[in-house]
Amino acid sequence: MLDPMDVSPETIEAVLNGMRPSIPYAEPEMQDVHIELPSLSLIGQSGWLCHVCLRVPLADRRPWSWFGCERCRGVDVRVASLFGGRRLLPLGQHSIMNGLSIDIHNSTDLQAQAGADQMVAMSSAWQGLDRWHEHQIRIHVAQWREEHGDDDESVTLTQWQERYPPDSMASAMNYATLLDNHFPWVFEAAPQASDVLWLAGVQFDE
CA-CA distance, 196 to 173, in Å (whole number)? Predict the structure, then answer.
């Protein structure tokens, strides 16, 4: 996988022409991360915690940053498959990362309008994701303060993940709650998306 900063114009053109499913991207490992309270911003690091589960640090690699960790993006792919798509929520910073682009050179007026409508919908979904993230920050910090007191100005990533372990079930439960709170139409259109075990990829023997 290429570093996002090494993506060439040829690669972007290939994506725009439907030759590749997404921009190549490899998440860098973030070590010795400290998390500031109460903002949950990363101290000394350019990035943020996953906007869905608030458990995994993600690097700011504009314009190819992710707002969702690998597990949460995996859940999103499962739900998107119910609608025949690659992505449901805009967990990528760039529209191409979310499977959306407009070929302005070859589009008909109708195609261009449809693409513009998709861009507007994606912007609205970003706003819903931001509202979820802000609300979850308040909930998580309140839980931490209740259990550990008000003295801590920061915590290590290790301490945070001991309290909030990053795993498939956590991603599935947070993703499902996110949909329920901000995108309830998904459950109405695809009831299977409300099955947390299915979202987490849990399989049972027949």
Answer: 6
